[in-house]
């Protein structure tokens, strides 16, 4: 892992009488495989800064290096073909099918047909669009969310090491946006692209970014991890911008796994009620998590809701929804704790095996650091 | 389903059949058929001339109109485009006969003959290049900036953007201009004979001058058939050329 993208004292002054610096002396380094979110109020220069990287906007002074090469010395066309580009309004080509849209850059790069077809197929699968169903349709036959998936797939088609994304999910409704963000992060864990992601939404910046580049009037205010921005905002502007609920926002940065406690109060579903009663007093709790012999979550046994005559835990336990997978965010975890009455949340792995349990106290501990 | 389809076709072809029967009856009734048979070699010469008039002026209008329209959309041409579009709009409002007369009167001033096929072609071309220029220009200008930004940002060259993105997406609008041009050319071509340009207009005007409906119809009916033929060809080629992704009716 080395530095993939490096901006050095990059400045943009638009020609005009007042010589306002749209981007002013911007410098930072981005490691390979990192997502850097450019965020700031509108007019802060975040889009301008991004578009200088693929030279859609010329640089007034300063230097940009990609993989150690000064982009000023590269042919703009070659440069842009190595940089995936995804914009807010998607910009799919209406005259081309979804497959043709995605195949554009591979074709321009001169790949052979077999390789292109394979790429289109795999990209459509990656962005969760069934290739047989979507490849031959036209953009206007797709919903906004589907179109943006295609936009992302198209941006990745030439296997670019770097991607620029200009508010890619900005025009999509909140529910679809959240799922697109999640999917994109999942894709990113596999593909490990170096990404510059422009957004005006601080929550999105926190969620998507390994690094956040917070800009104000063209100047870099703070460049750090989301965690550092939330815990140590550099000045009042930053803390105002991230909002008064910045501690709550940090909940999004942690997974349940990080905060949970091991050894939850479990009881085998084949155990007798007598055995369960001893466990109740041993744990000093009124709830036991019922599991099968493989440790898979089966239900919840409530001390005050054991039907008369029930002999085994299996007969007395009730199904429960108070569980989440360990990779969920602490925010979701906290919400689930408050949704159910148990005072804790069962943590499972993807197969449903009980891993631990989570209390509000555990969350507090984690936030304290 | 089948009866619905049958009804659809009946609706579509009944007017055509009726028109054809009516025209055929007129054609025969006024003796146009007999006149044509009697002068069959002249008929073929006139039809040939007519096709030359239509096809050459159309080819010139489309190719030069397309070229001019595209040039006007290029970066740095904004001022020129305003002027050219203004001229194009004014020029289009000059009546066809006026353009023919202008060619007749003006070409001798620059040392060319005002009589014959060349002035006729010049007049037809000058008159019909306007819709192609205008529609090419507005078709390309009408493409959303996002599409062009995406294409540029992805690393397409200006040429690739023009041929793969701009022209294909502007094609329905451009084809609208081509159809307008063709309609004007087909409608104006019979006037070419007034300045010695030949074509089926010769029989039409001869018929009018001699008050002979037969001769007139012998010219007019083939002109109408040629007009319908070109309209059909254009409609058909539009379906073939324009992507299903932007064709209005396609679902």
Textual characterization of the structure:
- The complex is a heterodimer of chains A (369) and B (251).
- Chain A has 16 helices and 16 strands.
- In chain A, the strands form four sheets. Chain A has a six-stranded mixed beta sheet, with helices on both faces.
- Chain A has 369 residues and is an alpha/beta fold.
- Helix content of chain A is 37%, strand content 24%.
- Chain B is mainly alpha-helical and 251 residues long.
- Chain B is 79% helix and 0% strand.
- In chain B, helix 3 runs parallel beside helix 6 (117-141).
- Chain B starts with a helix and ends in a 10-residue tail after the last helix.
- Classes of the chains: A alpha/beta (369), B mainly alpha (251).
- Chains A and B meet through helix 2, strand 6, helix 3 and helix 6 of A and helix 7 and helix 8 of B.
Proportion of β residues of chain B? under 5%
Which outline of chain B best applies? flat
Helix count of chain B, per DSSP?
10
* Coarse structural class of chain B: mainly alpha
Strand content of chain A: 15-25%
DSSP summary, beta strand count of chain A = 16
> What portion of residues of chain B is helical?
over 70%
Looking at this protein, list some descriptive labels.
heterodimer, A: 369 residues, alpha/beta, six-stranded mixed sheet, four-stranded antiparallel sheet, 16 helices, 37% helix, B: 251 residues, mainly alpha, 0% strand, flat
Write the layout of secondary structure elements.
The complex is a heterodimer of chains A (369) and B (251).
Chain A: E1 3-13, E2 21-31, E3 35-39, H1 46-53, E4 61-66, E5 69-70, H2 76-81, E6 83-87, H3 98-108, H4 113-126, H5 131-134, H6 144-156, E7 162-166, H7 174-191, E8 194-199, H8 202-208, E9 211-216, E10 219-224, H9 226-231, H10 236-242, H11 246-250, H12 256-259, E11 266-268, H13 273-283, E12 287-291, E13 297-302, H14 313-316, E14 323-325, H15 330-339, E15 345-348, E16 354-358, H16 360-368
Helix pairs in contact in A: 3-4, 3-6, 4-6
Chain B: H1 2-29, H2 32-38, H3 40-73, H4 78-92, H5 96-106, H6 117-141, H7 145-153, H8 158-188, H9 201-209, H10 213-241
Helix pairs in contact in B: 1-10, 2-10, 3-6, 3-8, 4-6, 5-6, 6-8, 7-8, 8-10, 9-10
């Amino acid at each position: 892992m080395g530095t993939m993208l490096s901006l050095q004292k990059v400045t943009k002054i638009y020609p005009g009488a007042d010589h306002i610096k749209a981007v002013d002396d911007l410098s930072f380094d981005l490691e390979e495989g990192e997502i850097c979110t450019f965020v700031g109020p509108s007019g802060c220069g975040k889009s301008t800064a991004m578009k200088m990287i693929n030279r859609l906007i010329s640089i007034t002074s300063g230097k940009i290096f990609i993989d150690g090469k000064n982009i000023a010395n590269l042919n703009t066309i070659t440069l842009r073909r190595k940089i995936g580009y995804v914009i807010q309004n998607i910009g799919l080509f209406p005259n081309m099918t979804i497959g043709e849209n995605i195949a554009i850059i591979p074709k321009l790069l001169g790949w052979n047909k077999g390789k292109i077809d394979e790429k289109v197929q795999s990209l459509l699968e990656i962005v969760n669009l069934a290739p047989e169903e979507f490849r031959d349709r036209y953009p206007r036959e797709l919903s906004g969310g589907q179109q943006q998936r295609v936009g992302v797939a198209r941006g990745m088609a030439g296997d670019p090491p770097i991607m620029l994304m200009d508010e890619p999910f900005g025009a999509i409704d909140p529910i679809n946006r959240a799922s697109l963000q999640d999917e994109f992060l999942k894709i990113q864990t596999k593909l490990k692209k170096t990404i510059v992601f422009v957004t005006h939404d601080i929550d999105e910046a926190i969620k998507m970014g390994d690094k956040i580049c917070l800009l104000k009037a063209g100047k870099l205010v703070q460049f750090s991890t989301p965690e550092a921005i939330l815990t140590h905002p550099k000045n009042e502007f930053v803390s105002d911008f991230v909002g008064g609920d910045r501690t709550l926002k940090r909940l999004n940065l942690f997974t349940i796994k990080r905060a949970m406690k091991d050894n939850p109060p479990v009881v085998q579903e084949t155990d007798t009620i007598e055995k369960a009663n001893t466990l109740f007093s041993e744990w000093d709790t009124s709830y036991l998590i019922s599991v099968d012999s493989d440790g898979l979550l089966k239900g919840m046994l409530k001390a005050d809701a054991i039907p008369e005559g029930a002999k085994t835990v299996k007969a007395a336990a009730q199904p429960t929804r108070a569980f989440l997978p360990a990779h969920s965010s602490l925010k979701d975890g906290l919400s689930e704790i408050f949704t159910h009455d148990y005072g804790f949340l069962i943590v499972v792995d993807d197969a449903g095996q009980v891993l631990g349990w989570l209390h509000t106290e555990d969350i507090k501990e984690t936030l304290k650091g | 389903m089948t009866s619905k389809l049958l009804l659809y076709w009946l609706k579509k072809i009944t007017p055509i059949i009726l028109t054809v029967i009516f025209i055929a009856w007129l054609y025969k009734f006024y003796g146009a058929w007999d006149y044509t048979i009697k002068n069959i070699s002249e008929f073929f010469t006139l039809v040939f001339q007519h096709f030359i008039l239509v096809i050459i002026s159309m080819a010139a209008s489309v190719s030069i109109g397309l070229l001019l329209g595209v040039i006007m959309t290029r970066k740095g041409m904004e001022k020129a485009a305003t002027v050219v579009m203004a001229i194009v709009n004014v020029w289009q409002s000059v009546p066809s006969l006026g353009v023919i007369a202008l060619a007749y009167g003006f070409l001798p001033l620059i040392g060319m003959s005002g009589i014959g096929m060349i002035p006729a072609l010049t007049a037809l071309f000058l008159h019909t290049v306007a819709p192609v220029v205008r529609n090419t220009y507005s078709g390309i200008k009408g493409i959303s900036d996002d599409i062009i930004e995406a294409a540029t940002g992805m690393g397409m060259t200006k040429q690739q953007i023009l041929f793969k993105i701009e022209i294909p997406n502007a094609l329905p609008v451009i084809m609208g201009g081509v159809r307008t041009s063709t309609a004007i050319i087909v409608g104006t071509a019979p006037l070419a004979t007034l300045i010695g340009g030949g074509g089926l207009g010769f029989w039409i005007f001869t018929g009018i001058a001699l008050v002979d409906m037969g001769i007139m119809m012998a010219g007019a009916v083939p002109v109408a058939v040629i007009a319908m033929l070109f309209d059909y060809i254009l409609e058909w080629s539009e379906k073939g050329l324009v992507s299903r992704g932007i064709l209005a009716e396609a679902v």
